[in-house]
Amino acid sequence: MSSNPVVLTLQEPVSFLLNEVETHCHLVALFFSSSSITLLPSLRGRRGYVQALREKADVEVARLLAQRKKNSRYHAQVTGMHALAMALEMLTKHCFDCVREGTLSASYPHPAGDEAKKLVKRIRRALRLVKVGLADNRRRTGIKLGRRTHKLLASYNDLQSKTLQAKATLSDEQLQASILSNLGIKRLIEQLGVVGDALIKADLGQVATLDNYPHLLDSATNLNYHLRDLKVRRLALTRSGSAIAAITHKDQSGNNVLAVYKEGDRAKIEEEVAGVNHWRSIDPKLAPSVLSQQGNSDEQVSLLIEHIPGQTLEALLLNGDQDGTQAALKALFKTLNQTWKASLTPETCNANFMAQLQKRISDSRKVHPEFFKEEERICGYVSRGFDELVQDVAKQETLWRAPFSVLTHGDFNVDNLIYDDAEKRVYFIDLHRAAYFDYVQDLSVLMVSIYRLQVLSGDTRTQMMDSAKAVYRFGQRFAKRQQDETFELRLAAGLARSFATSTRFIFDKKLASRMHLRARYLLHTLANITPEQAQTFTLPLKELYVE
């Protein structure tokens, strides 16, 4: 940090916060040796100063990050220091809790006061590591702090055991106060891990933590680099919680990505690896290869994935790149046509779009409860409620089986399709839901993911609507060649499902309302369709994709 004079201005409030946490720890240790309830007002009186220091850090961070690129190393350093300031403030709150909980009943000697005092002093010594490593050794200090945290937690368990052994000599109130006071110490220790994370993030980037540091170290080794020569910047955080980061060389352009690092739930990561293998078995160039896979727990796993150059379809659409979008769609349709024919199996399937809708719609109800009235009244006409419409369509849907199955993506959103203009081809990413299924599922998801892009007017919006229509026409041609007679009906059901459930991601009431009304329109149409009408049904594309 010393090499960056601008960021040095953040070290002042952080250093003062460190001093204040040490003072708080000293007062907590004093409480365990004296049991004096007068220490509680002393801690309470220091709150204003701590808050002022944290707010000073907030103001400085806002100044330093104004008009700065989010993915830069500078941004990572500043946000890491800000996270450190907030973690230190939380330490002072846990110190206060230790004393407050211990004085809930009248002042009394803690049954394991000496051990508690020693443990708090060890916490205070651990914090001195931060002082030493704040300027130049943030990552190394963070790792040391993580190791100290594990040892301190083991000592906490011993403290709690000794406290419980003395329960026969304590009243219920005293036992409760002792246990809760111990819990305050545990939270102090756990917060040291948060401080360690903040130090590592300030050095490597926001994706790096104490838990995944060994994974990142292994990833660097697999790339034939040392981690100190690399930087890690966040690319995305998926709705499933998986963190995605780009690994680049510190001395090269940030656009020169060596590989993509992804971490998340073990089951989802393993599903993604299986999905990648499925698609690569059809065409090795369809999906990025998995370079390595690591895991240090039953829950969390990380992947090192080949970096694919190019832009997502989402970026092309949002940037209004008409030529790029048309080229991407042309390459996409060619790829889908080839892969669907190559993977086609005669096994029929039913996507059960209404069952999918019912499973996911609860989140949309929470975000937009006003959309889900039991019935709608317009000029005296009473429309069925949303749930009743879904149930009616579900009954109709049993007759609309897909006549075959193909390998589908499963999460075919615009941000999961990458177009490489140099190679004139598309790649698929985030393949954890890949399966043999109804191809209409992918088409409907893609058409709605285009619609929900939050550009609501102008030429760019018009281009988006044209792109969604192009997806429909491609699907229509494929269905005709395969003699798929229920394509239009299934696509309408799939669009209704995606329009309705996708409102959970849209806070803008205007756009969300448009999407929900389109879902209701489709549901109402399908719920009332007769067998004769079903035979000649065509998707009302003009009504759906004209703003």
TrEMBL record:
Residues in Aminoglycoside phosphotransferase domain copies: 220-449
InterPro entries: Aminoglycoside_PTrfase, Kinase-like_dom_sf
Superkingdom of the source species: Bacteria
Any single Pfam family the record assigns to this protein: APH
Protein name: Aminoglycoside phosphotransferase family protein
